[in-house]
């Protein structure tokens, strides 16, 4: 039985449990192409911290609601009205109106289609923007690192996460999926590291993780400097995704379910330890990785799961206790 009583809830994320030990997190803002606004990235670490610590969850599937997008990235319309991307008072004469930077075609604009506002609640007025350069820099630093920590919560989650990518995967969608462990997509998925088109360098993970995920600095600079779109086939060729699942989003979801079902049947001690050791070793030398692995397994090899897994190899049906 999955323990859900303390799961944090949000209108922007659907949390379900389609299989034993499998959680499905669905980004839920389809009328805006699942574009992120501030309440979403503030809720994200609460949700994944809960899933990371829940003994009833062993694998997580991450997807986007609706047929059009995993996520089109940051909601530029919302971000342009407050926060670091809002025009300064000195440029108020050119401040965009709510409809002036919207497009229903993400290939020509990094903003979202027009429509009914998602909420009718009036947000509290933002604090005044500092005018002193040092204080402004400090404010921006806090904002950026909070955003980074939100996405880091996926990478730090102890459970393996498989991302099902479809439709548009722009900007923040790249950042978010790079924090997952496995990425699969549909054939018609369109990707773009879009940040330079809105006047900034990507600052919440792509520039730090994409090169390590693909091992090709030239290709990473190509797509990041140009902000050009790239296809599912190109993503597969350069190692951004591990497979392209023929068919529609539903077919990719079934493939993710199949993968997750296989993983949750294995020892959670082994699975979570493997994720921890791979992530820890990624940014360190081989020697340091081997040493950490030796210390880790000096403790973890004492688990009863090893004996159970050995019996499973011999064809016997085994079950592993919650971790």
Structure notes:
It is built from eleven helices and ten strands. It is α/β, with parallel strands linked by helices and 323 residues long. β2, α1 and β3 form a beta-alpha-beta unit. α1 runs parallel beside α3 and α9 packs antiparallel against α10. The two termini are 14 Å apart.
Mean pLDDT: 86
Tell me, briefly, the overall form: globular
Spatial extent as radius of gyration: 21 Å
What is the tally of helical segments?
A: 11
**Main beta-sheet strand count, sense and barrel state:** 6 strands, mixed
Sheet with most strands: strand arrangement = 1-2-3-5-7-10
Low-confidence stretches: 91-120
Question: Percentage of helical residues?
Answer: 40-55%
Structural class, please? alpha/beta
State the separation between the terminal residues, measured CA to CA. 14 Å
Number of strand elements: 10
Helix and strand run: EEHEEHHEEHEEHHEHEHHHH
Strand content: 5-15%
Layout: helices, strands, pairs:
Blueprint: E1 13-19, E2 22-27, H1 38-53, E3 59-64, E4 69-71, H2 76-79, H3 133-156, E5 161-165, E6 168-170, H4 172-178, E7 182-185, E8 190-192, H5 206-214, H6 217-226, E9 230-231, H7 232-237, E10 243-244, H8 249-264, H9 268-282, H10 286-300, H11 305-313
Parallel strand pairs: 2-3, 3-5, 4-6, 5-7, 6-8, 7-10
Antiparallel strand pairs: 1-2, 8-9
Helix pairs in contact: 1-3, 4-5, 9-10
């Amino acid at each position: 039985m999955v323990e859900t009583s303390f799961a944090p809830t949000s209108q922007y994320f659907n949390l379900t449990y389609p299989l034993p030990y499998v959680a499905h997190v669905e980004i839920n803002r389809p009328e805006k192409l699942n574009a992120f606004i501030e309440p979403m990235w503030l809720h994200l670490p609460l949700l994944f911290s809960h899933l990371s610590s829940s003994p009833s969850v062993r694998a997580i599937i991450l997807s986007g609601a609706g047929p059009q997008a995993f996520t089109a990235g940051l909601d530029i319309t919302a971000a342009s009205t407050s926060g670091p991307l809002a025009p300064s008072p000195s440029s108020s004469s050119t401040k965009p109106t709510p409809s002036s930077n919207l497009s229903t075609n993400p290939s020509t604009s990094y903003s979202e289609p027009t429509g009914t506002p998602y909420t009718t609640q009036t947000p509290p007025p933002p604090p005044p923007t500092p005018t002193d350069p040092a204080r402004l820099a400090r404010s921006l630093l806090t904002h950026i690192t909070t955003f980074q920590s939100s996405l880091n919560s996926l990478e730090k989650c102890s459970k393996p996460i498989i991302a099902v990518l479809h439709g548009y995967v722009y900007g923040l969608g790249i950042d978010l999926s790079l924090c997952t462990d496995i990425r699969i997509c549909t054939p018609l998925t369109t990707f773009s590291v879009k940040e330079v088109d809105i006047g900034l360098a990507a600052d919440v993970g792509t520039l730090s993780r994409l090169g390590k995920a693909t091992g090709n600095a030239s290709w990473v600079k190509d797509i990041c400097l140009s902000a050009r779109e790239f296809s599912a086939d190109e993503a597969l060729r350069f190692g951004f995704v591990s497979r392209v699942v023929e068919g529609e989003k539903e077919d990719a979801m079934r493939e993710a379910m199949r993968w997750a079902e296989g993983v949750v049947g294995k020892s959670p001690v082994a699975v979570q330890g493997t994720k921890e050791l791979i992530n820890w070793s990624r940014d360190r030398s081989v020697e340091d990785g081997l040493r950490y692995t030796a210390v880790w397994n000096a403790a973890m090899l004492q688990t009863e799961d090893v004996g159970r897994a050995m019996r499973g190899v011999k064809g016997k049906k085994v079950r592993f206790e919650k971790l």
